[in-house]
Structure formats: structure tokens, C-alpha cells
Amino acid sequence: MEGEMQGLAAAAHGQQDGAVRASRISGFEDLAFGSLAGMAGKFVEYPFDTVKVRLQTSGSQVFSGTVDCLRQTWQNEGFRGFYRGLTSPLLGAMAENAIAFYAYNRIQSVIRAASPATPADAPLSLAQLLLSGALSGSICAIVITPVELVKCKLQVENVRGYGATPQAASQSAVRFSGPLSVVAHLLKTQGIAGLYRGIAPTIGRETVGVGFWFGTYELVCRQLLRMRAASDPGARASKEDLGPGAIILAGGCAGIGYNATSYPIDVVKSLIQTADVRAPGQQGAPGQQAAIARPGVLSTVRAVYTRGGIAAFYRGLGITLLRAFPANAAMFMTYEYFCRLAVGLRGRGARQPAHA
């Protein structure tokens, strides 16, 4: 019993050390390291994301499943097809993760300040961490909605030509040359509001998803620290002592937590944002397209349910979870080790004697 209590105390001390470490990371470092983490994760996940969006927005008459989508994308577009439209989401991922980590840590400081009973260097409860993540996610949604919109349109617009006759394929030719052409078209036809089509489900997805993203990561880290402390009560049990394997596990689980909780909302978002490029008969230059009815959230939810029941809200989830683990492991590994490097370099500089 005494050893167990020592282990729990050591785990709590480790979480406290983590809180102290977070307070030593500046806002600029949060933005920089979060940006690098977003870049690393996006390169890993993007091919899977392309398949996910195409499965979400196309019925079974286009793709029979994940493997068929992979096969058709490779046959029709080759390797580059999986990275179609990468520029916009790459920049968006850098901005999103920079804001997410920055806001997450700053919101924790606000929560501590608003809770006099919580010491400045004490770990927050999991409920408080979930709240911090949810609030940071809602802030991120404002930034990434235009990025998601452009990405989804580029990923989906040429799918209508798959399996079509040469004449039909030419009529379904790609209309956008890249992210800038999508932005220019939206501004010309819909104004600034056009860039924020689908913002409501994006806010919903990010609020739920990012809350569970950070919450799951912190939960797994704390469990690993408790296990470490219980096995060796006298050992130091700090988050900074968790090795690459532990960070990979916690980061991968965080990605699964994000997608498992927010995926149905993401399906609705993708359908709303790609309604125009999926509509039949919309060929030709962007400026010559006919007006398309813009579906709302409730009508899209009803349409998805009518199409395939509850299962339709999870179409493409398999490949999403497959890419979620390595992509998010890469993100948290990048962020954690850059933070450790920054703290270590400052500590080493402080220990060196001043030169005369």
C-alpha cells in the first residue's frame, strides 16, 4: 500500500513537472513548434485524407470501398492524385496546430488563474484539459474553414470523371488549377462568405475533436506515468521522462480519439463544402457554372441518413483511423521533442559560467 501511494505521488509530481515545463515554453515557441508538428503530421496523413474525403462525398456507385478508392485514384491520377490540393491544407495544418497548441496552453493558464484553489504549477483535471482543448478547437475552426473548403473541392472535383467515357470525362474535366483558382472563384461568385461555407460543422468538429485530442493524449500520458511510478516507486516519473514509444502511443491514441468522436460531423462538413463540385452538369469554366442549391446542416444530415442510415455517417472511417495513429504520433513527437530541446538548451545556457 505504501509503495502504491509513493507511486501515485511520483506520478503526480511528474504531471506537476509537466505543468512547470509548459509554463517555460513561450507563446512564440508554442506557435513555432506547433507549426512544425502540423507540417510533419500533414505529410503523413494527406494521402489517407484524400481517400477519406472521396469516400465521404461519393456513393457506393463510384467507390465500393477503401481499396476500390485507392485503386481508382492510382489508375486515374497516379501517386500525385493522393496529394492533390496539398498546398492549402499543409499551410492550414501549420496554422491550425500552431494556434491549437498556443491556445491550449494559454487557456490552461486562464483556467488556473480563475481557480484559486489550483496552484500555478499543479496539473489540471482531465475535465479542465478537455475544456481547454475544446475551446482551442473552436478558435482553430475560424482559421481552417477556408483551408478545409479549398482542400475538399480539389480532392473531389475530378472524381466524376472516373469510369466515364472519353467525351463525358472531358466534360467533367478539372476546373480548378490549384488552391488560388478555388479562392478566386469563391470570392468572385460568393464573396468572403463563400470561403466560410461549412463553418458551423467545422466548429462542431473541432470543438469536439480537439477536446478529445488533447484529453486523450493527457490521459494516456498520465496512465503511463502511473504505471512507471507503480513499477519503480523511487524513480522519477515526469512527462519529460517518457520515451519515444510512450509519446508515439499517446499521440496515436489522441488521433484516434479525435476522429472517433468527430467523424460524423466531418462527413456532414465535407458534403456541404463539396456540394457544387459533386453536382451533375456543372461543367465548363467556374464563372459559367449554374447556381447550385446550397444544402444546410439539417438537410445534409437527413440526406446522409436516408442514403445509408447511421453507417453512412461512418463511411471512410477505417482509413481515417488508419492514418490517424501515425500522423498524430508524428505531430506530438515533433512538438514534444522540440519543447524538450528548447528547455534543455535554456537550462544548459543557464548552467554555463559567464565569460569575463
TrEMBL record:
InterPro entries, alphabetized: MCP, MCP_dom_sf, MCP_transmembrane, Mitochondrial_Carrier
Transmembrane stretches, start-end: none
One of the GO biological process terms: mitochondrial L-ornithine transmembrane transport
Key word Repeat present: yes
Protein location: Mitochondrion membrane
Cellular component GO terms, alphabetical: mitochondrial membrane
Major subcellular site: mitochondrion
Region forming the signal peptide: none
UniProt feature coiled coil, ranges: none
UniProt membrane topology term: Multi-pass membrane protein
Solcar repeat coordinates: 25-110, 124-223, 246-341
Domain of life: Eukaryota
PANTHER family hit by this protein: MITOCHONDRIAL BASIC AMINO ACIDS TRANSPORTER-RELATED, MITOCHONDRIAL ORNITHINE TRANSPORTER 1
Record-given protein name: Mitochondrial ornithine carrier protein
Organism annotation: Coemansia biformis
